[in-house]
């Protein structure tokens, strides 16, 4: 059977061919590239065949199963094998990865010793009820877990070092409803959680004896308010003296969308199109952010209209896409166009930055920067060619970065050879360098908890003193003298510097940084910066929209503009002026490489004012220009006062390639690389980035889109009467022509069967209430048009859905929870541990805490599916 899906913009067609069992065998994209999936007689995917590219012939990945259907081996496109072993109860007990492909090929029966130098063995043990009791990593270090009679985790104990008298443990307590009521951290401090009658988190409070509470900027208590639909509408933080530190109000409209955010006396107002897409964001600050968004026929971002700044002059950034929906070009208001080229697997191969239109600076057609990207068979980046300069990357058998070489370089990208030696779990043992800006560091050591020997830590794994690298120099500088201070949620709030100066940091109720103040040796404030943060933008992450700095009675305000990424900033009228061709406060436009790292700044004429270069982990190797700019590696904030990158949940030290604090996300049992609590980007910063320091709600939204798509396809394929069923990519105006031209025309109900007159909503397991409310809303809308639908009962979704990369280690367990409601729960393959609990504690409250730290409230799940569509569009474009 062949089905076709046509996008309306240019009649671009993607075709799907199915086998007799209903499995998708062939997918052919609009450019004619075909991906084939082969299944065994049990309907399990055993091979995925990818089309040839201009560099490589056709490739494939292979999955093997045992007689019981457990996945026992995966072979990637380069022939590298990961093996899985199970006990008699079907529980995963070992994952093996290999540094030697020959050993991997012969170890089919797990006969090679787990301690062999080429074997990375991660092992798991369970109690008689199936609860995980321990995890042993590739270095033989054991983390243990305790659970109660309900299967809830009550304790986690970290590995011990030789000579230690006691292990570090954290513990959990629950109330009568199974909600987390207390968490005692590794230092013995207890955080208390309270809930309302609907099970929503009302407050969390620090241990009264927590040492951070001696500081007036330290949060001691956080409180939350909700509306009748369960969406969070307000949040406040207080210090130990009960002084209000932060307050925000975020009321929702009838469709669950944020109407405005009022925080610290500044208000951001949001408006939306009828289909729920974000239309405008306007700040109450004079000359503040004032941005509008427009979309194409398939709801992809097409234009960003920016009137920010005191002049109010409108500047427009334009986006275009290729036939497969990949970003094709971004044209900035200063005439610079960034164009992108891809291979048949939709992997980026070229990026060109050129002056499309003369704006008083470079002539039209002037190419500022051209990148060519070469890949390995598996898609990892092997080379970047920039004119005469070539950067070559090397990896070990687990795709961890081992070398970076730049040849043919110049002052903007100097020649260098960097080599990294890693231990089995990816910790860096040494770095050798022939570039003065990046010093050689050898004989690095770690304890059993991966704490770096050159640094010191508190019991929770937060760095209290460490080594940082001053930008563009060969000076290793101690970050402090043991006086980095963290609050009860492990956020850095104060640093005492070796020279006697200090700084404090402030955060909102979600843990996002909103302020920083520097003090001289006498304790007098010398510089203060406040950040107006937005969490409702198209990037999926909390972003600074306005940054105001006061020093020596002078105030500078920067207003930042975002599309799907950071585009520019403009100085306010009260700020010192940058050079400008029209006499207005000038802007700077961010020109990035494929990874989002800022390589140049350009003015309003297109002239380049600043250039930057980095090694693979973000250490600056060269810089030119004098513009005050903190947005550098991966487009994130470099804090020169700390020598660290601010990545929302945590800070990252580019010199060590490690986070400054331990990750609360413990990783996936199927992917041991994710279990390393300090490594940045799993030790492969060339191919991956971590913008949140955490698993974010943006990533949950990506999973949600995949689940919606796959259930929708199953619903359509299994229709008893073809032509009567509609899935979530079809709008109301397509289902019923009467809706055309109305305010509801672009709404997209999840599943509609016009033959049985039934409707279904798809939501995560813990959002039954939101699904019911949304279903009732759609039934009412249909009823207003004279069509009577009911909550459906005749369709049963697939019991399990295999998620697409990068979440292929997970499945979505689906069920018809009640009439008209399909719920899904995420879990690891061959493992009943819920991903929603992220292996910390199996409660919804912990998930909410994790997602909030990643910049969004879990209450967003209560919003209408139109908001889910917004997130889906963001994902496609990023």
TrEMBL record:
Keywords: Hydrolase. One of its GO terms (molecular function) is hydrolase activity. InterPro entries: Rhs_assc_core (IPR022385), RHS_repeat (IPR031325), T6SS_VgrG/RHS (IPR050708), YD (IPR006530). It is an enzyme of class 3 (hydrolase). The keyword ATP-binding does not apply. The keyword Hydrolase applies. Its EC number is 3.1.-.-. PANTHER family: PROTEIN RHSA-RELATED, PTHR32305. This is tRNA(Glu)-specific nuclease WapA. It comes from mine drainage metagenome.
